[in-house]
Specification:
The protein has 338 residues and is an alpha/beta fold. The chain folds into two domains: 184 residues, Isopropylmalate Dehydrogenase (3-Layer(aba) Sandwich); 133 residues, Isopropylmalate Dehydrogenase. Helix content is 41%, strand content 18%. The protein contains eleven helices and twelve strands. The strands form two sheets. The protein has a ten-stranded mixed β-sheet with strand order 2-1-3-12-11-4-5-10-8-9, with helices on both faces. The longest helix has 18 residues. The structure holds 1,4-dihydronicotinamide adenine dinucleotide and magnesium ion. 1,4-dihydronicotinamide adenine dinucleotide binds next to loops. This is Isocitrate dehydrogenase. GO terms for molecular function: isocitrate dehydrogenase (NAD+) activity; magnesium ion binding; NAD binding. It is an enzyme of class 1 (oxidoreductase). InterPro entries: IsoCit/isopropylmalate_DH_CS (IPR019818), IsoPropMal-DH-like_dom (IPR024084).
Length: 338
């Protein structure tokens, strides 16, 4: 297969983890070519624009992008580049897998939960945040639409069918937020009827948090609205050992951007010790998305095997003494040998 993707190395540790990730993608021989474009501070410095048009054009053209973390400068009125990208391409589904890997300090060993979070509406509407003139009253609007709820729930069910998942839990707070969360829940119930082969259940968000901490093995796929999904997906990342292993896929009808959940980690940038696995797991999800499911699984297995058997090469955040490069190289070797 021959396919070109947009590659955005990004800021801080971005170029380091991207290099290790592309090394593994090349090793697995997936036939991808890379159109490398800039965004973030590096783009601002070199091109005078945080998000150059050429970068947007490349994503639109190739429809798939692999993206390193981007630093949005604080102050100066810049909107987050990530939020801008999600809006521009209407990337309505934020898919966040949390999978257990060996050799982490995680509390559980057999977790495999995918959170599907609505990414465009809910409590995160920019225009929905207001403060009264006297500064005494702050209001924020939560707006869920039937269209937005339907497409996210349908995405979750279609993904479950494709990936052979068994169960979907719709997470809500319809008992209190009767209109916004109620609409989402009603839509989830309706859509669920179309997929009798997938077990459907519903759970109130606060109970979900407790259940995730106490009995995470009961969850398979979670689908939920924007704010709840933001919180729950980080909770799930914590269950499997934190941000170093958390990929985030942003999917729309016309484009998809795959990235690590973590940021540009300025505290360790340039030291060569960043863990490349979150971006690499995002790349594995990207291969799934491109129909190369076996190769995606191969990458995950190689990460698992490296973490279990090549402890010397694992990065310090996972308790090893390795570097970004040695970790990536060890994973690439396992991919080549598989
Ligand atoms: P961060 O995720 O960059 O760092 C938090 C902590 O986790 C730091 O101690 C860092 O060293 C560590 N860490 C993160 N990724 C790691 C990795 N791969 N290996 C080892 N350790 C890792 O979050 P922070 O400091 O809040 O944000 C820094 C910058 O990143 C900000 O400018 C922020 O806007 C941006 N950011 C960008 C995101 C994106 O592009 N998707 C997401 C989150 C933040
Ligand atoms: Mg978040």
């Amino acid at each position: 297969m021959s396919k070109t993707i947009a590659v955005i190395p990004g800021d801080g540790i971005g170029p380091e983890i991207m290099k290790a990730t592309l090394r593994v993608l090349d090793a697995i021989d997936c036939g991808l070519s890379y159109d490398v474009v800039e965004a973030g501070m590096i783009a601002l410095d070199k091109q005078g624009d945080l998000l150059p048009k050429a970068t947007l054009d490349a994503i639109a053209k190739h429809k798939v992008a692999l993206k390193g973390p981007l630093t949005t400068p604080i102050g100066g009125g810049f909107t987050s580049i990530n939020v801008t990208l999600r809006r521009h391409f209407d990337l309505y589904a934020n898919v966040r897998p949390a999978i257990s890997f060996p050799g982490t300090k995680a509390r559980y060993e057999n977790i495999d939960i995918i959170t599907v979070r609505e990414n465009t509406e809910g409590a995160y509407l920019a225009e929905g945040q207001t403060l009264s003139d006297d500064g005494e009253t702050a209001t924020s609007i939560i707006r869920n639409t039937r269209r937005g709820s339907t497409r996210i729930v349908r995405y979750a069910f279609e993904m479950a069918v494709k990936k052979g998942r068994k169960k979907i839990t719709a997470v809500h707070k319809a008992n209190i937020m009767k209109t916004s969360s109620g609409l989402f829940l009603n839509v989830a119930r309706e859509v669920a009827k179309e997929y009798p082969q997938i077990e459907f259940n519903e759970m109130i968000v606060d109970n979900t948090c407790m259940q995730l901490v106490m009995r995470p093995e009961q969850f398979d796929v979670i689908v939920t609205t924007n704010l709840f999904g933001d919180i729950i997906s980080d909770l799930c990342a914590g269950l499997v050992g934190g941000l170093g292993l958390a990929p985030g896929d942003n999917i729309g009808a016309d484009a998809a951007i795959f990235e690590a959940v973590h940021g540009s980690a300025p505290d360790i940038a340039g030291k060569g010790i960043a863990n490349p696995c979150a971006l690499l797991l995002a790349a594995a999800d990207m291969l799934d998305h491109l129909g190369m499911v076996e190769k995606g699984s191969k990458i995950r297995q190689a990460i698992r095997d490296t973490m279990e058997h090549d402890r010397a090469h694992v990065t310090p955040d996972l308790g090893g003494k390795g570097s970004t490069e040695s970790f990536g190289e060890a994973i690439a070797k396992r991919v080549l040998a598989a």
